[in-house]
Write a structure and sequence with these properties.
The protein has 370 residues and is α/β, with parallel strands linked by helices. It has helices at residues 12-26, 36-40, 44-53, 64-72, 90-95, 105-118, 142-150, 174-191, 204-209, 340-347, 351-356; strands spanning 6-11, 30-34, 58-61, 79-81, 99-102, 122-127, 155-161, 198-202, 217-218, 243-255, 260-261, 267-268, 273-278, 295-298, 301-304, 314-317, 329-333, 364-367. The chain has two domains: 12-225, TIM Barrel, CATH 3.20.20.10; 243-367, Beta Barrel (Lyase, Ornithine Decarboxylase, Chain A, domain 1), CATH 2.40.37. Helix content is 29%, strand content 23%. It is elongated, with a radius of gyration of 24 Å.
C-alpha cells in the first residue's frame, strides 16, 4: 500500500459558502469563477464540478489547455479563456464551445474562418487595456476593432472586459480612472452600432471595494477559495478557507541541548528537545522561506518549524506539546488560527501564491461535509 503523508483537503461546504457570499455582494451581476492555475491550487476539475453543480454562470481560465482539461472532464458550463492563444488553435476553440479573449485581428479572423467552416459560432470577449499594459486593445482603437470583428462571419461578441491594476488599494484613484477609460471604450463600440455584450471588470478586491465595477459580471478568484485579496491578509467576514494543507508525523526523536537540526544547523536546541518529522517540503509547496519562522498546529497547539525546510521533509519542535504520536495529523495552513495569509506574510508574498504553490504531487482530497 502506498500512502501519502501530506494532503490538501478541499472543503466543499466552504467553497459553496464562499460562492453564496459572493452572490450576495454581486447582486444581479453574473458570477464568473476564476479557476486558472488549477483553481489556485485547489484542483480545477474538482472545483469546477462543485461550482457547476451550484449554478455558477461562467468559469474562467488563463490558457486554452486549462479549458480543454475541463471540457474533457465533461464540464459544460460557459468557459472563458482570459489569455491569448495562437490563431492555429481556432478550430479547437470553436469546436469545444470555448469563449476566447481577443485583442488582435489575426486571432479574430482565424476564429471567424473556423466558425464558418465548422458551422458553429465563435464567441469572443474583447479585452481593453485600461492601464495594466499587459494585454488588450488600446481604448482609442476599441470602436474600430469591434467594427472589424462584427463584420467577420460566424463571430459573436459575447462580452468586453478589462483588468484592474490596484483594486486592493483603497487609497488609489487609479481604479476610478480605469473605469472611466473602460466606459469610454464601450461608448466608442456602441457608436459603431455594436453592443458590447457582457461588461466585466471586477476581481475579488474590486468586488468588495468598488461597487461601480460590478457591471454585468464579476470575476472572483481568491475570495472564492477563502483567501484574502488585500495586503493585510485579512479574510472578510463570512468567507471560509477552502484548502487545509496537512501532513502526518512520521517519526519522533529527542535531541540534547546544543544539538542542531537540518541543513547548516540553523536551529540549535537550547534545551532537551523533541523533534517531529513531517514528510512534506518545498517540493510539495511548503516554502523554504518558512524555515525557522513558521509554525504548524498539532493537537490543537502551535509548534515552530525547527531548522531549514528540506525538499521532502520539515522538522517541528513539539517539546511543549504532550503526547504527540507518530501518525498525528498536523495542519500546515488552513485553520482559522493558521490561515494561508500568515504564511504569505512570513514569505513576503500574497495569499494566492501560498495555495498555487502546492505541487501536483500532493493529492487533493475532497471533504464533502465537516
Amino acid at each position: 500500500m502506498i500512502q501519502r503523508k501530506a494532503s490538501a483537503y478541499i472543503h466543499k461546504e466552504n467553497l459553496i459558502n464562499n460562492l453564496r457570499q459572493l452572490r450576495k455582494i454581486a447582486g444581479s451581476s453574473k458570477i464568473c469563477a476564476v479557476i486558472k492555475a488549477d483553481a489556485y491550487g485547489h484542483g480545477a476539475v474538482m472545483t469546477s464540478r462543485i461550482l457547476a453543480e451550484a449554478g455558477v454562470d461562467f468559469l474562467a481560465v488563463a490558457y486554452l489547455e486549462e479549458a480543454l482539461e475541463l471540457r474533457e472532464a465533461g464540464i459544460q458550463t460557459p468557459l472563458l479563456v482570459l489569455g491569448t492563444t495562437d490563431p492555429g488553435n481556432a478550430d479547437i476553440i470553436v469546436s469545444n464551445r470555448i469563449s476566447q479573449t481577443i485583442f488582435t485581428r489575426e486571432l479574430a479572423a482565424a476564429l471567424s474562418e473556423s466558425a464558418l467552416r465548422l458551422g458553429r459560432a465563435a464567441f469572443v470577449h474583447i479585452k481593453i487595456d485600461t492601464g495594466m499594459h499587459r494585454q488588450g486593445i488600446d481604448p482609442g482603437q476599441a470602436g474600430s476593432f469591434a467594427r472589424f470583428v462584427s463584420q467577420l462571419g460566424g463571430v459573436t461578441i459575447e462580452g468586453c472586459y478589462s483588468h484592474f491594476t490596484e483594486a486592493d488599494n483603497p487609497e488609489s484613484d487609479f481604479s476610478a480612472r480605469q473605469i472611466e477609460v473602460f466606459n469610454g471604450a464601450l461608448d466608442a463600440i456602441r457608436a459603431e452600432g455594436i453592443e458590447p455584450g457582457i461588461r466585466h471588470m471586477a476581481n475579488s478586491a474590486a468586488l468588495l471595494l468598488i461597487p461601480e465595477s460590478r457591471m454585468d459580471m464579476v470575476r472572483p478568484g481568491v475570495l472564492l477559495y477563502g483567501l484574502s485579496p488585500e495586503g493585510d491578509h485579512r479574510l472578510p467576514e463570512g468567507f471560509k478557507p477552502v484548502m487545509e494543507f496537512r501532513a502526518a508525523v512520521t517519526s519522533l526523536r529527542d535531541i540534547g541541548e546544543g544539538e542542531g537540526v537540518s541543513y547548516a544547523r540553523t536551529f540549535v536546541a537550547s534545551r532537551p528537545t523533541r523533534i517531529a518529522l513531517l514528510q512534506v517540503g518545498y517540493a510539495d509547496g511548503y516554502s523554504r522561506h518558512l524555515s525557522n519562522r513558521a509554525a504548524v498546529v498539532v493537537r490543537g497547539q502551535r509548534a515552530p518549524v525547527a531548522g531549514r525546510v528540506c525538499m521532502d521533509q520539515i522538522m517541528v519542535d513539539v517539546t511543549d506539546i504532550p503526547d504527540v504520536q507518530v501518525g498525528d495529523e498536523v495542519t500546515l495552513f488552513g485553520l482559522a488560527e493558521l490561515p494561508a495569509g500568515e504564511l504569505a506574510q512570513i514569505m513576503g508574498t500574497i495569499d494566492y501564491e501560498v495555495s498555487c504553490g502546492i505541487s501536483k504531487r500532493v493529492p487533493r482530497v475532497l471533504i464533502e461535509r465537516g
